[in-house]
């Protein structure tokens, strides 16, 4: 995706948009954690929590700031603008988008804009994926503002937070095989390709998990497709049948690779998207994650920067798994560790030596009782074993439920992409 050999060590997560103008050079200083508020806990609001994660700091492993947004809207995912000056974060329930300034003082993010009319302007609800484009932000949503079902789309904004237009996810009969569902987005500029995946609508993701899995009708309302888009034209070109709600998408960053991988939540599979011998893009099931009969519920994945390994978190059994994907056609699980009673997001450093894990999936899907752990943990990885370095208990600190994580750095710790490495600018159609 980036198409270059990294000349020095970088800390950045491997899942960011290729259009970011800079990488964190060396050790990350901060971890920004988009956190769900819990009624009666602290101020009860969603918030951006900043952890000090530099081992040379006297505050290593501690919360240094928290910025409340003044309400609970099911905080979920976040993403940097292409200039990395701002972090956009969304609420699945209230459909608000919060924009934080993380460049003026990276240790003390500031809420500088709240986009409250996302649903009205776009016709969508549940802003989920925030994917940077040159001067723009593409926001993938999970649902719509008409019936709360899975039919959805993507909304394009400029970096000032001004709405531009909506792109509908392809659905039958207009496009054969399309179900109209959406979830994640991932771009390979060298191939003029964007992939989107699919999940479910607001009615389902705001229903308690125990109730949902007993409702046969509701369980049929999950996406079973991925879509290949012509990036420059922003037109869907092909719909792949990928049963079981394909979630996060990761393109290999290894120079010369042109394949991507995803995990399906309900069927517990790894799927590969790659061109076949005839040069046609195909999607195929290449591995099983745990025991599908026990519904481990794969959630987040993180691919190594060299495209040789993949971390997979499974929510229900609280397990972090590592797959050798040096042959992406035949991934092999080589390691597993129970890292919590429930685990969701996983973020690894560019050099693969540090792995962060957070615990919350959705407020109504998180476990109860003693299994309702809410934490962020840092693990060291030596290629053989995950070694816990610290744990921040978000309940003990009355912060809420930690979800998405992004790396931050002090001024001077950001390095520009080499000029020859930067992906070509993309001109997005404005029809």
TrEMBL record:
This is Methanethiol oxidase. Pathway: Organosulfur degradation. It catalyses: methanethiol + O2 + H2O = hydrogen sulfide + formaldehyde + H2O2 + H(+). It is an enzyme of class 1 (oxidoreductase). Pfam families: SBP56. Belongs to the selenium-binding protein family. GO terms for molecular function: methanethiol oxidase activity; selenium binding. It comes from Massilia litorea. Its EC number is 1.8.3.4. It comes from the Bacteria.
């Amino acid at each position: 995706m980036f198409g270059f050999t990294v000349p020095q060590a970088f800390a950045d997560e491997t899942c960011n948009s290729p259009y970011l103008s800079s990488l964190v050079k060396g050790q990350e200083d901060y971890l920004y954690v988009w956190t769900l508020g819990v009624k009666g806990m602290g101020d009860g609001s969603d918030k951006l929590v900043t952890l000090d994660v530099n081992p040379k700091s006297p505050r290593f492993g501690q919360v240094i700031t928290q910025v409340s947004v003044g309400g609970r809207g099911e905080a979920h995912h976040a993403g940097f603008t292409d200039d990395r000056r701002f972090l956009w974060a969304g609420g699945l329930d209230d459909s608000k988008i919060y924009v934080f300034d993380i460049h003026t003082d990276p240790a003390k993010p500031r809420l500088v804009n709240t986009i409250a009319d996302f649903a009205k302007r776009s016709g969508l609800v549940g802003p989920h994926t925030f994917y940077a484009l040159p001067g723009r932000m593409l926001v993938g949503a999970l649902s719509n503002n008409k019936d709360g079902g899975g039919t959805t789309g993507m909304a394009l904004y400029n970096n000032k937070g001004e709405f531009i237009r909506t792109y509908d996810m392809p659905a039958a009969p207009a496009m054969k095989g399309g179900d109209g569902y959406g979830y994640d987005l991932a771009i390979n500029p060298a191939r003029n390709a964007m992939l989107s995946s699919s999940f479910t609508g607001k009615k389902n993701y705001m229903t308690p998990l125990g109730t949902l899995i007993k409702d046969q009708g509701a369980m049929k309302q999950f996406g079973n497709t991925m879509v290949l888009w012509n990036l420059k034209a922003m037109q869907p070109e092909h719909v792949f049948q990928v049963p079981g709600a394909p979630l996060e998408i990761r393109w290999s960053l290894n120079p010369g690779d042109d394949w991507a991988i995803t995990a399906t939540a309900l069927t517990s599979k790894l799927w590969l998207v790659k061109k076949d011998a005839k040069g046609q893009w195909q999607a195929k099931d290449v591995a099983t994650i745990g025991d599908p009969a026990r519904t481990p519920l794969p959630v987040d994945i993180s691919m190594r920067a060299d495209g040789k390994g993949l971390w997979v978190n499974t929510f229900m059994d609280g397990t972090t798994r590592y797959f050798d994907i040096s042959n992406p056609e035949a991934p092999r699980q080589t390691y597993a560790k129970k890292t919590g009673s429930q685990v969701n997001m996983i973020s690894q450093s560019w050099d693969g030596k540090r792995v962060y894990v957070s615990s919350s999936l959705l407020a109504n899907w998180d476990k109860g009782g003693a299994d309702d752990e809410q934490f962020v943990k840092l693990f060291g990885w030596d290629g053989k074993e995950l070694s816990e370095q610290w744990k921040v208990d978000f309940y003990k600190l009355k912060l809420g439920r930690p979800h998405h994580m992004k790396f931050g750095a002090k001024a001077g710790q950001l390095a520009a992409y080499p000029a020859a490495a930067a992906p070509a600018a993309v001109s997005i159609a404005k029809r």
